[in-house]
Structure formats: structure tokens, C-alpha cells
């Protein structure tokens, strides 16, 4: 019977043995299948080499601006005048890692921490100032930074300061675009290596992501979820493509988001998940079938996780296909009857 609309004939996959059918593997969604799938899923573990990194004292670099205070000597502390903004009296670290200071001349500061710079300036300034009391602070941090790109409201560079910068703090400043971000696809690039991290794991307060600190040169990319979608077709309440931002989307949630199975037209035995492969010539695509008429179907659907680009198809019930066939046939029969009547009238 040829009826309008979509229909999946799984008997061809199992029986006919053609080249087309050999490229597709039909699998029943059962507790055993779910156990196998769960065993192959990757845990949300943060790589050990990321967690072992601990920030050290901040090292001054080119582009930083220092504010050097010499107590009781305003001519050295604020040479541009106390009425000027602090930046006007700051000391810029030059590209060669040095700065100029009155009396003592060029001072190499790049690669040193604040205390080391303070000690050298105090020592050298003692030749010109009696018992100098020197303090050093960093007005502007520019030499060390991380860069955040992708689905952030405030993407761009963030400076690393004397306070260690954690991944969570950097993401908090950048602010995730929660409507379009793929939370499970965060990428951290460090020292030529890329690490995949799952931000959705932050729902667990024990997540190791809270203990991850960033270092100079780190690149963080949060992809958009516009390509992370599944397609729901056939006899469902509202056939459409849906996007999701977490790592997992189970079959029950996907069906529920489109109104579930159409109660008047759907076949409970014809719930399929079609999953393609990159090379169909070498590896068969998979079609997973769920018997939604089974009492355990809801449990199985909740535990069966979909993957991006999966197609969820719900086939029509037999009576639905028959009614559609009849609805297509009746107008045709009416047209044939009308034509016969006209022909008879022309003969009379």
C-alpha cells in the first residue's frame, strides 16, 4: 500500500541484504544497550596537568605600569604633580623590560616580582636619599593575559594580576551567553595543547573546574550551540529541530519538547533514532528503535542520550497510513467518476 507521507520500512534493513541496507544497522533500545553506551561515555574529569598548575608570584613585564612611592619625597613619587591622575605619575615598563627612575637611571624590572624591584630601587636610591622608604605597586597590568572567545557577552582579553585568576572568575567576568552557548564544548588551549571541558559540570559544587587556575597565554573558547541540534520528525506534536546547550539530551526530553507522540496518528512501536557516520562506506549508520508501547519505554527513553545531528523519527500507525491512502484515493475516484459522467453525457 502506497500512502502519502513518511514511513520507515525496517524490514528492508534486516532482510533484503542489498548494498543500501548493509550500510544501516538496526538496534533495539534495551537495558543491555544502555549499559554498553554508559560504559563508553567519557566522565567529566579535568586533566591532572591542568589541576597541578599553581600560580606563582606575579612577574612584571613589558607594558605594565608601576607606581613607585618614596615616602617624604613627593618630587620622586609624583613628579607630574599631585593634582594629576595616578597614571600620569606611573612608570611604564618599556619593551626591553626596563624603566627609568630619577637619580638611579635605568632599572631592569621584567621577570621580577614587586618585592625584588622594591629592594633594588631602595638599595640604589640610598646613595642619594637617606634611608629611603620605597613602596611599589602595579597600576596597570598588561604583560600577562588570557583571551576568551565565542559565546561570551564580554569576549576578549583579560589581564592576569597579582591575584591568581581562576577559570571560573574569568568566565564570570566574560559572562556566558546562556541562550546560545554550548556549555559542554568549552576548549582550553595551553602550551600548544587543547583540553575539552564541560561547564555543565559546575552544577556539581565538587567539580574540579573550581580549582583550575589560568596562566599567561591561555586561550578559552566557548562554542555556540547552533550546530548542536537534533531533528524530530514524523508523528510528533510539533516536528522541528531543537538545539541544546548541555552535554546530554535524552530521548524523553527531546520528545517532550515537541509535544510527545501524536496520540491519534503515531505508532508506539515506530520510534526511531537515526544516527549517521562520517564514512558510510566503511561504517554502517545506526538506527535505534524504541517500543514506546512497553511499560519500561519511558525509563529507557530517559536513559538514552542523543547525539548532535541525530534524527528522531516517529512513524505512523497502520490505521493512519490506511486513512491517508483512502483520503488520497477518494478524490481520485471522484475525478474518475466525474470524467465518466461527462463522457456519457457527450454520447447522449
Query: Largest sheet at a glance?
Result: 6 strands, mixed
Q: Based on the structure given, which CATH architecture of the largest domain is correct?
A: Roll
Going by CATH, what is the homologous superfamily of the largest domain?
Outer membrane lipoprotein wza domain like
The helix-strand sequence is HHEHHEHEEEHEEEHEEEEEHEEHEH
Q: Kindly estimate the percentage of residues that lie in beta strands according to DSSP.
A: 15-25%
Share of helical residues? 25-40%
Structural class: alpha+beta
DSSP helical segment count: 10
Count of the domains: 3
Descriptive key words:
6-stranded mixed sheet; 16 strands; 348 residues; 10 helices; rod-shaped; 3 domains; wza like fold; Outer membrane lipoprotein wza fold like; 5-stranded mixed sheet
How would you describe this structure to a colleague?
With 348 residues, the protein is an alpha+beta fold. The protein has three domains: 10-43 and 247-322, Outer membrane lipoprotein wza fold like (Roll); 48-55 and 144-222, Roll (Outer membrane lipoprotein wza fold like), CATH 3.10.560; 65-140, wza like domain (wza like fold). The protein is built from ten helices and 16 strands. Strands 1-15-14-16-12-13 form a six-stranded mixed sheet. A five-stranded mixed sheet has the order 8-7-11-9-10, covered by helices on one side. A hairpin with a 3-residue loop joins strand 4 (98-101) and strand 5 (105-108). The radius of gyration is 34 Å and the shape is rod-shaped. The model is unreliable at 332-343 (pLDDT under 50). One of its GO terms (cellular component) is pore complex. GO terms for molecular function: polysaccharide transmembrane transporter activity; porin activity.
Amino acid at each position: 500500500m502506497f500512502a502519502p507521507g513518511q514511513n520507515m520500512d525496517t524490514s528492508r534493513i534486516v532482510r533484503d541484504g542489498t548494498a543500501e541496507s548493509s550500510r544501516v544497522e538496526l538496534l533495539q533500545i534495551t537495558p543491555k544497550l544502555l549499559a554498553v553506551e554508559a560504559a563508553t561515555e567519557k566522565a567529566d574529569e579535568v586533566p591532572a596537568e591542568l589541576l597541578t598548575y599553581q600560580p606563582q608570584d606575579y612577574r612584571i613585564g613589558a607594558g605594565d605600569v608601576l607606581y613607585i612611592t618614596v615616602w617624604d619625597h613627593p618630587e620622586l613619587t609624583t613628579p607630574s604633580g599631585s593634582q594629576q591622575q595616578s597614571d600620569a605619575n606611573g612608570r611604564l615598563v618599556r619593551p626591553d623590560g626596563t624603566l627609568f627612575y630619577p637619580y638611579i637611571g635605568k632599572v631592569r624590572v621584567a621577570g621580577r616580582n614587586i618585592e625584588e624591584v622594591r629592594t633594588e630601587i631602595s638599595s640604589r636610591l640610598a646613595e642619594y636619599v637617606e634611608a629611603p622608604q620605597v613602596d611599589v605597586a602595579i597600576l596597570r597590568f598588561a604583560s600577562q593575559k588570557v583571551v576568551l572567545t565565542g559565546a561570551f557577552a564580554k569576549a576578549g582579553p583579560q589581564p592576569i594580576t597579582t591575584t591568581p585568576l581562576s577559570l571560573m572568575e574569568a568566565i564570570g567576568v566574560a559572562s556566558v551567553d546562556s541562550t546560545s552557548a554550548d556549555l559542554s564544548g568549552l576548549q582550553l588551549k595551553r602550551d600548544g595543547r587543547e583540553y575539552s571541558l564541560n561547564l555543565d559540570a559546575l552544577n556539581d559544587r565538587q567539580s574540579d573546574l573550581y580549582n583550575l587556575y589560568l596562566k599567561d597565554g591561555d586561550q578559552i573558547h566557548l562554542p555556540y550551540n547552533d550546530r548542536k541540534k537534533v531533528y524530530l520528525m514524523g508523528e510528533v506534536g510539533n516536528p522541528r529541530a531543537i538545539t541544546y546547550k548541555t552535554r546530554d539530551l535524552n530521548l524523553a526530553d527531546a520528545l517532550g519538547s515537541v509535544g510527545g507522540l501524536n496520540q491519534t496518528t503515531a505508532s508506539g512501536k515506530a520510534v526511531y533514532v537515526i544516527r549517521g557516520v562520517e564514512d558510510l562506506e566503511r561504517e554502517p549508520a545506526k538506527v535505534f528503535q524504541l517500543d514506546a508501547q512497553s511499560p519500561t519505554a519511558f525509563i529507557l527513553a530517559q536513559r538514552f542520550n542523543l547525539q548532535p545531528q541525530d534524527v528522531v523519527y516517529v512513524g505512523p500507525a497502520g490505521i493512519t497510513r490506511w486513512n491517508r491512502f483512502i483520503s488520497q484515493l477518494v478524490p481520485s475516484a471522484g475525478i474518475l467518476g466525474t470524467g465518466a459522467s461527462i463522457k456519457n453525457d457527450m454520447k447522449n
